[in-house]
Amino acid sequence: MSEVFLRFRGREITAKETAFLRELIAQNPGLSRRRLSTKVCEAWQWYQPNGQPRDMVCRSLMLALHRAGHIELPAKRHAPPNNAIAHQRTSSGETYDAAPFQGTISELGALEIQLVRRTEDESLFAHLLSRYHYLGYTRPVGEHLKYLIWAGCKPVACMAWCSAPLHLDLRDRFVGAHHKTYRHNLRLIAYNTRYLLLPWIKVRHLASHLLGRIAWRISEDWQQVYHHPIHLLESFVDTERFEGTCYQAANWTFLGLTKGFGKGNKRHEVLLSIKALWAYPLGPHFRQRLLAP
Fold first, then answer.
1. Strand 154-163 to strand 144-151: parallel, antiparallel, or no bridges (unpaired)?
2. Rounded Cα–Cα distance for residues 217 and 25 (Å)
3. What angle (nearest 5°) sits at the alpha carbon of residue 194, between those of residues 124 and 196?
4. Three-state SS across the chain?
5. How remote is the C-alpha of 87 from its chain's centroid?
6. What is the pLDDT of residue 10?
7. Are strands 201-203 and 189-197 parallel, antiparallel or unpaired?
8. Among residues 29, 45, 80, 105, which is most buried (max CB within 10 A)?
9. What is the predicted pLDDT for the residue at 8?
10. From CA 23, how far away is CA 72, in angstroms rounded?
């Protein structure tokens, strides 16, 4: 059995793959790291559901092998700015209506749910999360959607969704299978990474109302951007801060509590706050969809 040098995004990199990369680099001494990555994606048929090559993932893989001494990449030709850091910086000069409002959903008026990714309002979305959400704002990695909810000219809420975590025992029990069985379909699960009701809005039942509105449209929105649907929603709730009432009111299912060990904690010490995992299936056949070959 071939030795596994690295496990990366569900792919095992063995001596065979490493030898292929060495040969590819040797045969194309004039290519940049980016062009090499494109060739690797073509050879391995490594594409996103929308047909684009997994260029950044592939480059990260090759860099990890380079740093471990398994391959030798060509020298960098230029050092572009770190976009991940740049996107965490948010403007403090955003202007918006933050006048206090207290009333009912009907009194708040018509609500517009806006997809703001790659729009001029994306910076406002980032600014609001950075300033008013206890976790702040970080740029999502991989597939993701960003929603900004408006009542007229007044921002009301922000909601961010991204690709689901690789494995969750609580989810496995809900789906009825080990995560390895449906790893190839994890893209069909959307994870609610941020949910913020802005502090100047005091409206009962608004949080659960918006969860229901998003649930009706998110699969179609995901299909438009990434060319595949969503069949299950999930979210963690920090039990030291919240009770998850809005998820319960929106008919989400409570799956259980985390143990607080954190990722890679081999000593099984409680290092993190205990979180509740909630899930919402988008249709009665979500299990069959996730477990499909």
1. antiparallel
2. 45
3. 65
4. CCCEEEEECCEEEEHHHHHHHHHHHHHCCCCCHHHHHHHHHHHHCCECCCCCECHHHHHHHHHHHHHCCCCCCCCCCCCCCCHHHHHHCCCCCCCCCCCCEEECHHHHCCEEEEECCCCCCHHHHHHHHHHHCCCCCCCCCCCEEEEEEEECCEEEEEEEEEECCCCCHHHHHHHCCCHHHHHHHHHHEEEEEEEEECCCEEECCHHHHHHHHHHHHHHHHHHHHHCCCCCEEEEEEECCCCCCHHHHHCCCEEEEECCCCCCCCCCCCCCCCCEEEEEEECCCCHHHHHHCC
5. 15
6. 62
7. unpaired
8. 105
9. 67
10. 11
10 Å Cβ neighbour count for 81? 7
d(CA 115, CA 117): 6
CA distance 241 to 256: 16
**Amino acid in position 279:** A
Two structure tokens written together for 119:
């729009």
- Output the pLDDT for position 172: 97
Query: Scanning the structure block, which residue is given the tokens 């299909």?
Result: 223
Q: Quickly count: other Cβ atoms within 10 Å of residue 58's Cβ.
A: 23
Q: Which amino acid is at 176?
A: G
CA 245 to chain centre: 23
The reported pLDDT for the residue numbered 89 is 44
Which CATH class name applies to 105-291? alpha beta
Q: Which of 210, 164, 209 is nearest to 187 (CA)?
A: 164
Structure tokens at 228: 């595949």
Mean pLDDT by 10 residues, the chain (293 residues): 66 84 90 89 82 81 85 76 44 75 95 92 94 90 93 95 92 95 95 96 97 97 95 96 95 92 50 88 96 94
The span from the CA of 117 to the CA of 72, in Å, is 36
Report domain extents, the chain.
Answer: 4-67, 105-291
